[in-house]
Design brief:
CATH superfamily of the domain at 3-199 and 314-392 in chain A: Alpha/Beta hydrolase fold, catalytic domain
Mean pLDDT of chain A: 93
Oligomer: homodimer
CATH architecture of the domain at 3-199 and 314-392 in chain A: 3-Layer(aba) Sandwich
Distance between the termini of chain A: 33 Å
Radius of gyration of chain A: 21 Å
Number of helices of chain A: 10
Helix content of chain A: 25-40%
Strand order of the largest sheet of chain A: 1-4-8-5-9-10-11-12
Chain lengths: 395, 395
């Protein structure tokens, strides 16, 4: 659910070139958009990026769906000075698994997002003020339906693949379900057909931290004074769930930062000394919380986590198979052994239900110590799976 | 780390009688107490309860160490109207594993606590105001040293066993290390010789939630207006770590509460409707957070979690064995299969290091789906282990 993380990730092994300098674009859809909840907005914008060229047949597109905290910028740099490239730059580029010499790669900030697409921070055309909580209740299906408008706008006839990890995996699978004529392949990574009670519980605590921050003010806060404390706490906690116990131990263990430990003979009256950041892992989480506040909107966090919690492909009878009855796409679902947020069993369950529904589906398991975020990190094993899946399609 | 929980726990199977109505007592120690950090306080109080009778030889005492959110009231009721008995009533009583017909059972609220013993909410005799953050930095060893004064005060010559789960397990083991002449048996349940980076990380997020709540005010808050929001968030998050994924799924799954789900056609402007408590598991956590705020002090939470994070029995060379060189007590360490906060491997590690150090130690593993809190809940398997360990001592 997170961006690739400089502290935990080794520099991704590039087995290909870079897409270079990229420029985000805006797709402004002037048509009414109707949400699953019944509410409508008169228009919306999706900010997106593309890499590579659409072929003459308009059939070589790969659509990338980002995770909770991601955005449209998944490859290349916006300027030569950018410290980091897009969040999936290790996978997208000339000669890389999503090979921009062959494929036209598209990624958009989701509807409801805060990175250029229409969401709670956008002006409500009806009032001229920010939507905030007047933004309609949002589902994964809503996000996918908005993506589909962009794909039509770009003239894509069919998608070679829709791909995503975590929340992005939910969207990718929903794409294949809702637009069977449009999607030839679907790849879901570290995802689930529905969240466990534990995953809902973690999201609920995050929302509680945000909504109980006085600065949240029932969602009605000015752009520069949101519930930063609550959002940082939510992010710190969530970040723990993206990593494995083992990866935290091997990276940080119980290492301490400098002189934070209280010297003998000192009283503890100095709160900063006794309760301040003492262990490296604390410092790391503080940094994660702060940097998230600088780039993310608290209301979007509420809308996205709620969409995650409500996502459930199981039918009223508890069966998952029926969700895939109309699906025609080939499917690859990948679980990561150390992912405890969306455990491998939940990924396997998706592929098995697809198979029972008569789909061409494969489950693959990648051994990794890096937890849920494994799908974002350097993994030759994952790269090989992605390459093989794309290559297996008859031209 | 938690109290037994009515929602998750089946009514404990009582295989014995009750201790009946009990009355807490205060041990006021008028001697200076020196902390590991070097600071001193001129006196301290420990609130405690006892069950059963000390024998003439003064050798039949069992000392119970409570976990993070526990207190001295572990058996019986304070009045006939009490809704719930003490937190370990399933284990302590006539004919129960800690049989009060045979043993004199003692439990005290830890030094630093907020349930009657001296801690941050107590008046500082030097200033007449609450200690708050002028309370000295606290370690597990400090808590044990204060307990030892109580045991002397009660005239106990030696302890048949010191027992505890989670933080209580750390204390029990520290007892056996620091007072080898006093402790004949030690039982550590769901505990660890040092916390993992992940466990520290969860505590750090909890502290962050508290310390960033404006009501915390650098620890200087009035009794009736503490950082309740931060403390509730900390507790909600921590509570997830006390339970297993499986137990949450089997108890709550994705069940929803009444009509909280947003009806189609409704806009989401009603924050309470869209982001309010929707799933049963959310409701459960909210309840946990609120009830905790009503009985716990935020500064004590900071002091206790910091003591947990700093507890580390490993030597500077990383070896654990040397910690047990002087220990003479028999030891039983019990891990629970679904405990992911202090996993069974961390419990096993303690027993193995004790064995390597030449101690009489046993590791036992209890199969349970209930996570870290398993040690508090009804478990005939655990009861049998406790009975057998106590019975194995030659009288």
């Amino acid at each position: 659910m997170t961006d690739a993380d400089a502290l935990l990730a080794p520099a991704p092994a590039t087995d290909g070139g870079d897409v270079g300098i990229v420029r985000p674009q805006d797709f402004v859809c002037k048509e009414t958009f109707k949400f699953d909840c019944g509410a409508e907005i008169p228009e919306f914008t999706l900010r997106y990026e593309t890499y590579g060229q659409l072929n003459a047949a308009r059939t070589n597109a790969i659509y990338i769906c980002h995770a909770l905290s991601g955005d449209h910028h998944c490859a290349g740099r916006h300027s030569a000075e950018d410290r980091k490239p897009g969040w999936w730059d290790n996978i997208i580029g000339p000669g890389k698994p999503f090979d921009t010499d062959k494929y036209f790669v598209i990624c958009a900030n989701c509807l409801g997002g805060c990175r250029g697409s229409t969401g709670p921070i956008s002006p409500n055309p009806r009032s001229g003020k920010r939507y905030n909580l007047d933004f309609p209740a949002l589902t994964i299906r809503d996000m996918v339906r908005a993506h589909a408008r962009l794909v039509d706008h770009l003239g894509v006839r069919s998608l070679a693949a829709v791909v995503g990890g975590s929340m992005g995996g939910m969207m990718a699978i929903q794409w294949a379900i809702d637009f069977p004529g449009k999607v030839r392949g679907v790849i879901g990574l570290a995802t689930t057909a529905r969240q466990s009670a534990q995953a809902i519980a973690f999201n609920a605590v995050g929302r509680s931290a945000i909504m109980q921050d006085p600065a949240w003010n029932q969602g009605d806060y000015p752009p520069d004074a949101g519930p930063n404390v609550g959002l940082a706490v939510a992010r710190m906690m969530a970040h723990i769930t993206y990593l494995s116990n083992k990866s935290l131990d091997s990276k940080f263990g119980r290492a301490k930062r400098g002189q934070a430990s209280l010297p003998a003979g000192t009283n503890s009256g100095d709160a900063a000394g006794h309760f301040g950041v003492e262990f490296e892992v604390e410092s790391y989480l503080q940094h994660q919380g702060q940097s998230f506040v600088n780039r993310f909107d608290a209301n979007t966090y509420l809308y996205f986590t709620k969409a995650l919690d409500r996502f459930d492909l199981h039918g009223p009878d508890g069966r998952l198979d029926d969700a895939f009855k109309a699906m025609t796409a080939r499917a690859l679902v990948v679980g990561f052994t150390s992912d405890w947020l969306f455990p491998k069993e939940q990924n396997q369950e998706i592929a098995q239900a697809m198979l029972r529904a008569g789909c061409r589906a494969t489950y693959a398991e990648v051994t990794s110590d890096l937890g849920h975020d494994s799908f974002l990190l350097n993994s030759p094993e994952l790269y090989a799976l992605l390459r093989a899946f794309l290559a297996a399609e008859k031209a």
